[in-house]
Specification:
By secondary structure, the chain is an alpha/beta fold. It is built from 16 helices and 21 strands. Helix 2 packs parallel to helix 5 and helix 12 runs parallel beside helix 13. The longest helix has 16 residues. 52% of the residues are buried.
């Protein structure tokens, strides 16, 4: 992951330009030598991506400081590793800093961010600092609109089971280790390659996967064609003798694969389509796992079971990880076997237990396609009857009678995304038996007049009594408990803080539903 430019820092016009300029600039950002970083200050250090960077920099032996809005388990964990973490933001944090690291989630007008830019010190986006931290590792990049975290996590677990000890940076914590990042002793690093702001253009992969390409983050890319332009630039950064792995089932990924072929790069595909190089068949979702058969790796079909993940989309993610494992020369029997007891990933259909006979899960789904995939998988889990294992007598992929209802709780993320995808969100939420829509988690955005959670709820085509718009965050647990019955499954979804309600929902169901029963 060597330097990508001879030009230091950000271009001055990046700070005033909207998202599209930031995406374009990523291709020309500098990746400085690790030795030049000095003391690194990370704004928002406990976030999933920033904490991963902090871990690796600390393992590299650098002095790391950062700031956060409040105390948390993540803050405590970073302090235990040796980071200095301030609560609150201040320009004074720059006094003992050589390099400042940010993400585009930070408002450019924030006083600490402004002070960093005016200080004359290097100001790097997270991806540039991560590339510097892994400069001597062979990069395996996992890209796509959906499925990056799960695919990256599965590959890391497989590699560890095979004794490879890879470095990695993931957007969620692995249950096996509790970590989202690690500086390994192995020769390669597995990283999520984020397309949202063009950060994946700071990688130099020897191999990469594109799981899918859809319209998303239009505030940065402008339109779908802008997204494809960014993915083509990403392909250009893959080693000329490297590999692009693409999902044959996704129209956008196939388009990127065709572009990669036109550049002379090697391309492999995977999916359920007959023309995929590696084919997936016989997908069966259980209450606690997904099973499927892979053909095209070795001489015989291979049956794979992945614990804690459910749904056909997860079967595809696991297949991508298996093909990459094959590319890396890992033992496929060991790799596949390591997933049978896979512990899962934080916020990827993560169980929060049972209260009053109601199962509660949380998922990071925040795009209409992701919501539809998660709710479809949840229905299949309900059909499995809630057992702790597969049903031996059932044909994989067949539907059994459902044992309860599916209650979906969605917290939309950002006003612009809600406005753009309101109808698509509504169509996806209609897959649930009961749809509860919260108010919008704004992230860094200012409100758009007239755009609220109700913008989505009023478009959901379900009977009126089964669609609830609940703008009061603290009222959601009791609202769910009033509606739930024993045997139901509740799944919370969104990029914001909805996941913090899961344990409260479970406990409210225990009081209300369990008490009534």
């Amino acid at each position: 992951m060597s330097p990508t430019s001879d030009h230091a820092g950000e271009r001055p016009d990046d700070w005033a330009a909207p998202g599209a300029a930031l995406v374009r600039s990523a291709a020309t950002d500098v990746v400085p030598p690790l030795a030049s970083l000095g003391r690194v200050h990370i704004m928002g250090i406990a976030g999933s991506g920033m904490s991963a960077l902090a871990r690796i920099l600390l393992e590299r032996g650098l002095e790391v400081s950062g700031c956060e809005a409040r105390e948390s388990i993540g803050v405590a964990g970073l302090r235990a590793l040796g980071a200095t973490v301030h609560i609150g933001h201040s320009p004074a944090h720059l006094d003992d800093t050589d390099t400042f690291v940010y993400t585009t989630a930070i408002n450019p007008k924030h006083e600490e961010f402004v002070a960093a830019r005016e200080s004359g010190k290097p100001v790097l986006r997270r991806a540039a600092a991560l590339a510097a931290a892994l400069e001597d590792r062979r990069c395996i990049a996992v890209a796509g609109t959906h499925g990056k975290t799960s695919t990256t996590s599965l590959l890391v677990v497989a590699a560890q089971a095979c004794g490879a000890d890879p470095s990695f940076a993931i957007g969620g914590n692995l249950y096996e280790t509790g970590k989202n990042a690690h500086l390994g002793t192995g020769s390669f690093a597995v990283v999520e390659a984020d397309e949202s702001d063009g950060s994946f253009l700071l990688t130099r992969p020897s191999a990469a996967v594109v799981t899918n390409v859809e319209a998303d983050h239009l505030e940065n890319h402008g339109d779908l064609e802008g997204i494809f332009r960014a993915f083509e630039l990403f392909v250009d950064r893959i080693d000329t003798d490297g590999l692009l792995l693409a999902c044959a089932d996704d129209t956008g990924a196939r388009r990127v694969a065709e572009y990669a072929r036109s550049t002379g790069r090697r391309v492999r595909t995977y999916g359920v389509r007959d023309d995929a190089d590696v084919q997936v068949a016989g997908v069966g979702t259980h209450a606690d796992a997904v099973e499927f058969t892979v053909t095209g790796l070795g001489t015989a079909p291979r049956r794979v079971r992945v614990g804690s993940l459910i749904g056909a989309h997860m079967a595809l993610n696991a297949t991508a990880a298996l093909v990459l494992a094959d590319h890396l020369g890992l033992d496929l029997d060991t790799a596949a076997a390591s997933w049978a007891a896979f512990g899962g990933v934080h916020r990827r259909f993560e169980s929060h237990g049972v209260g009053g006979g109601v199962r509660v899960y949380d998922d990071y789904a925040h795009h209409p396609t992701e919501i539809a995939a998660s709710l479809t998988a949840a229905k299949e889990a309900l059909a499995d009857g809630g057992a702790s294992g597969p049903h031996p007598g059932r044909v994989p992929g067949s539907q059994a009678p459902r044992t309860g209802r599916l209650i979906a709780v969605f917290q939309p993320g950002t006003y612009s995304r809600t406005q753009t995808f309101a109808r698509e969100f509504a169509q996806a939420m209609a897959l649930a038996d009961i749809a509860i829509v919260m108010d919008i988690f704004p992230a860094r955005e200012e409100p758009i007049p007239g755009v609220t959670g109700a913008t989505i709820s009023r478009l959901i085509e379900l009977p009126a009594e089964r669609v609830i718009y609940e703008p009061r965050y603290d009222a959601v647990p009791e609202r769910v408990a009033e509606l739930a019955q024993p045997g139901d499954l509740v799944v919370t979804m969104g990029i914001g803080n909805v996941y913090l309600l899961c344990d409260e929902i479970r406990d409210a169901c225990e009081r209300t539903v369990g008490g009534a029963a």
